Here is the input.
Amino acid sequence: MAYDRYIAICQPLMYHSVMTPQRVSLLVFISWFLPLYCMFMNTVTIYQAKLCGSHIHKLFCSNWLINKLACSTSIANIIIGYFNMAYYCCHFVFILWTYMYLVRICPTSSENRRKFMQTCVPHLVSLFNFGIAVLLDLMYMRFGSQDISQSLQNFMSIEFLLIPPLLNPLVYGLKLTKIKNRILSFIHEKKQSVMMM
Here is the structure.
């Protein structure tokens, strides 16, 4: 999506010649195939592991938690883990580079600035929202404390599944004038009722 926005804003006249159906199909295929491949390889390496325990301190199972239960870690599991980290780091750097370039280009024109604010800011907010939620989940999984109550542990384990889907409709919906006006009038009505009390 970042590459698509880059072409749409910076090279609008060339958009249809650059974003051909073949290129879009290739980008969609890569965006689906590589993560599925990464997850498949993780599953294959964990499938062969002998487990020395059976208790997982989370509502759901994940590769890292199963890996922690393994008696020994295989070289293949380590290599696959580093490949996955490298892939996702490169992916993140590419998205960051694309948006940094857009931020640098957009102030030159008010039309480009408007396009960027309308199309890219909601995507960036959603991306950072999801990224922070996943990062907090990974850090909790890796360094989490057992002193926390079970209810809070359960919430922290599923918050990356709850918060982004709840915020995304708001982020993308605020672009639509009718929704934005309705939300603002609702907030204004609440302020008026609080002030009257």
Observations:
- The CA atoms of residues 6 and 102 lie 6 Å apart.
